[in-house]
Amino acid sequence: MRRIGIIMMLIIVLMMSFLTGCTTPASQPQAPASKDVTTDVLVLGGGGAGLVSAITAAENGANVILVEKMPAVGGNTIISATGITASDTKLHEEAGLPFTVEDHIKKTMETSKGLADEKLVRVLAENSSDAYDWLVSLGLSYKIQSAEEPFWIIPTEGHYGAQLVKAFQAEAGKYKNLEIKLNTKATEIIVEDGKVVGAKVEGQDGAYAIKAKSVILATGGLNNAPEMIAEYNSNYKGVNTEMTTPGPTGDGIKMAAAIGAQLKDMEYFQMRPLSANGYWYKEVIVNEEGKGGILVNKKAERFVDETMKPWDLAAEILKQEDNMAYIIFDTDVYNTKDGKKAFDQGKGVKADTIEELAAQLGLDAATLKATVDAYNAGQDPFNRKAMGKVTVGPFYGVKTLPSSHYTMGGVAINENAQVLNESGNVIEGLYAAGEVVGGLYGAGRVAGNNTLDDIVFGKIAAKHALGK
Ligand code: ADP
Questions:
Q1: Predicted TM-score (pTM) of this structure
Q2: Distance 430 CA to ligand 1 centre (A)
């Protein structure tokens, strides 16, 4: 009786699937829908890593499709305001300012608190001089930041990230075998017989599949996914998204995890504690020795040692009412470059007395006065390392919010930029480059290494995918 029931069930399922046209079991290759397209290399995401991968694959003769979910390419790469980190470049040689590959590895490992994968870090550093040469070959021009910071290479003029994306776009435009599909979101990685063979996408022309011999994941981090950030690290619950473009919402990490990719270092983020109106302010305005201002919450009270590490400071601010704080500083701090910048960009308020400042910020005047007086008298329940003074009027107040600046965690890769599964084995056909990668920076990233890794691992992914 039971057996008959099962056979009947099977017949019904087969008939149903015949009628609905869904006869193919999930493990079998599906017949392509009429809209489905094929290519050699499919790149998901059009920030720095995606554009470099796509250009590299195209210049090596492959047919390439890059899908970007936003109406324009650029991602968070376009807002990279600083520069690139590179070692043993021609610039270092010309300037007589050494920053060697070994220095580069050491600095990256130390900043990661020893958690980064040293094999990947070595690949990054050893390829950095070539990456610099490539940027110069695209017409970009750089100089070393300073003798004190020789690791840092910055544009001779103009905005670093905007220039970079413009140059990549111009380069991508040279290749007829490279198609960029904007407003097209990857929704799922397609696996057949244990190998990645494409991705499902949704564009303005509907949903379809793009089949490819290799897929390069370059969807960036999760800076614009505050709930997801809080899931991975509850210290950052309520984090703001001041310092990100809209696209990086962790899609690639979710899609890769759904097919068994290993995720690494997901609890680590680079948080900037002080930001508002789309800018971040250097923490020196609250922790410069003998000069810094203070942070107060909505009760007009100090709550923290303002000199603690930026990401710990961010977590402390996020614990306060409305996840924010006010920076209070005096004219001495205002007169520094960073004080003025914070005031202007943060659209701060200014007053001759602390009580008037409190009124403008909507804080209790007597409490703020008591807080500032106690601080000026050296009373410090938080064991602040370097005490300053808030004594010279006029006084300034700026509202500040912690923002996520960089996602350290992401999918695990090997030196060929191949994505690894939870057992550490390669997921055939799937590569990753850029901020979607985890394991490269552990608990902390050297500024400027990130656009370097876009280039280094973007190129490696494309070349390995093509057997070059
Ligand atoms: P990276 O430096 O790693 O290139 P970016 O933030 O510069 O990172 O770029 C990532 C890009 O990926 C962004 O332009 C973002 O809009 C895009 N992106 C994110 N998720 C998707 C998705 N599901 N489909 C297509 N593009 C995506």
A1: 0.88
A2: 16
